[in-house]
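Example for tutorial group B:
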């Protein structure tokens, strides 16, 4: 239930600015911007936020037809929701559906927020980047 969720860019250029996003799984133009695992309350907040993300079926991270294309304003709103999960008090009130302890979740989300902020800056500089939300619920 709700195992893997995140944001992918499928057309990232092979330039120095994007190297920190690449790993052994994302060497070509597809890179993972941010990722979380088993954080159902965060996922539910994203889906109910008005971003236009509705996930009522089973989605597959590896199947592009299941990805949801996001605009820059949607990524910015996504970022604002993610930022709430870097506050320990907010997490203590809202982290009822996760395998993570509150402090663990805050630490994870701080790292994901840092990556997303760096990518969002690049996205604004290079407006042709395609960013997708994926959900494996």
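The residue assignment follows.
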């Amino acid at each position: 239930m709700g195992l893997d969720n995140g944001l992918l860019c499928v057309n990232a250029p092979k330039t120095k600015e994007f190297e920190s996003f690449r790993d052994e799984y994302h060497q070509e133009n597809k890179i993972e911007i941010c990722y979380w695992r088993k954080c159902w309350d965060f996922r539910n907040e994203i889906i109910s936020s008005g971003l236009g993300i509705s996930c009522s079926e089973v989605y597959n991270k590896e199947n592009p037809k299941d990805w949801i294309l996001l605009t820059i304003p949607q990524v910015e709103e996504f970022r604002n929701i993610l930022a709430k999960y870097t506050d320990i008090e907010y997490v203590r009130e809202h982290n009822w559906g996760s395998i993570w302890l509150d402090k663990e979740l805050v630490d994870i989300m701080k790292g994901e927020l840092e990556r997303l902020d760096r990518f969002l800056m690049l996205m604004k500089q290079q407006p042709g980047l395609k960013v997708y939300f994926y959900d494996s619920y």
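The mean pLDDT is 83. Compare this with the pattern of hydrophobic and polar residues in the output above.
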